[in-house]
Amino acid sequence: MPRAFLVVMDSVGIGGAPDADQFFNGDVPDAGANTLGHIAQACAAGHAEEGRNGPLNMPTLDGLGLGAALKLASGLEVAGLDGDLSASFGAATEVSRGKDTPSGHWELAGLPVPWDWHYFPDETPAFPADVSRLIAATAGTEDILGDCHASGTAIISELGAQHLKSGWPICYTSADSVVQIAAHEETFGLERLLNLCAGVAPYFHDMKVGRVIARPFKGDMDKGFERTGNRKDFAIMPPAPVLSNWVQDAGRRVYAVGKIGDIFSMQGIDEVRKGDDATLMGHLGDLVTTAEEGAFVFANFVEFDSLYGHRRDVSGYARALEWFDAQIGAVIARLRPGDMMVLTADHGNDPTWVGTDHTRERVPVLIAGEQTGPLGLIGFADVADLVARHLGVPRR
User: Fold this and answer.
1) Hey, CA dihedral for 266, 269, 271, 272, is it positive or negative?
2) Rounded CA gap, 369 and 386, in Å?
């Protein structure tokens, strides 16, 4: 019985979205953004030399058609992404009206988002007064800190000391449909933070805010503050069955690697494995070895986006791509006959672009193992159909 592995390289877009001019970073439209293409150009020009050097080196994924998918999506050809092809490839276009994690993942799982997300304005305060009061009342505090658009690492550095003194949670948002609540794991308490986020999440979900994210951190005023690995997303539940449900309802086992369980509110998920990207790669490799016949593994590698895209770190993003390429090559080599691994992305986050937000882009669709033939330009939801057909499970 065939197995399938769907691996999302978070934010590794390849440009070319036909509606990119309708999405913005500040006042600048995303038309022309190209995460992979611009990183590769910077590498080839010697402008991404921190911790690495030379043209972008991704022989595994380029052999699966990464450079060809880039050319198909956006017409861009870049030195270093011109290898011989050994597998099926394509480029996928999103229809959901968002460039965020839930929109991209839901649609890759067969469900375009059926509504417009709610976003908070880029002003201070960002939240309506009743929202701030709700968070403070649920937290048992007099007020909240932040109440603005912010980078998570920056606002923790800025307000960490004030948080320790006041005990008020740090609340912020971004261009995504999200509310993020940060608090110190020890002085505020991790369980208290998770209970706070769980308590307010239904209110925000009714507003069609996609996620409430608990952002615990540690540290002090002398040593500084840093986020821990105990992040938890409280995402709105998909309103209809998705790929994981189709597979589970067919009697197969479904594994979630990374934040997939949070994104889908555990719908259709049997087992979750978490950690940083290095740990997740170990989990993925283990599941390639141990997952039973007919299983479906859905994985997300987030650090391209969280550590490098939002921070506009071109060299760091390039290092992460090269690391992933080397690691995934060893995992692919262990696929069993009849297995299919689909490698794709959920949106872009061009580190050469203005602002700090995601960018509206097409994404690569690369297939290792069982071949499908040429894919061409497809939709995000077509990825779910590829996986379902391979597993022999019906769409619901």
Assistant:
1) negative
2) 13
Task: Classify burial at 278, counting beta carbons within 10 Å of its beta carbon; exposed 0-12, middle 13-18, buried 19 or more.
Answer: exposed
Whole-angstrom Cα distance, residue 11 to residue 31? 16
Cα–Cα distance between 383 and 378 in angstroms, integer? 8
CA nearest neighbour of 215 among 178, 175, 261: 178
Could you report the per-residue pLDDT of 64-99, keeping only the tens digit for each? 999 999 999 999 999 889 877 777 999 999 999 999
Distance of CA 38 to the CA centre of its chain: 19
Residue type at position 48: A
DSSP symbols for 303-336: HIIIIIITTT-HHHHHHHHHHHHHHHHHHHTTPP
Element (DSSP H or E) covering residue 134: helix 129-139
| Cβ count near 215 (within 10 Å) | 23
DSSP 222: T
Q: What token pair was written down for 391? A: 């597993």
Whole-angstrom CA distances from 222 to 160, 165, 219 are 11, 14, 8
End-to-end Cα separation, the chain, in angstroms:
21
Rounded to whole angstroms, the Cα distance separating 218 from 155 reads: 14
In one-letter notation, the amino acid at residue 293 is E
Are the beta carbons of 314 and 351 closer than 8 angstroms?
Answer: yes
CA distance 222 to 164: 12
Q: Please state the φ and ψ torsions of residue 139, each to the nearest 5 degrees.
A: -75, -20
Query: Which among 210, 268, 200, 211 has a CA at the least distance from the CA of 240?
Result: 268
The pLDDT mean for the chain works out to: 96
Task: Look at 42 and 229; give whichever has higher pLDDT.
Answer: 42
Distance CA 211, CA 205 (A): 7
Contact 181, 197 (CB under 8 A): yes
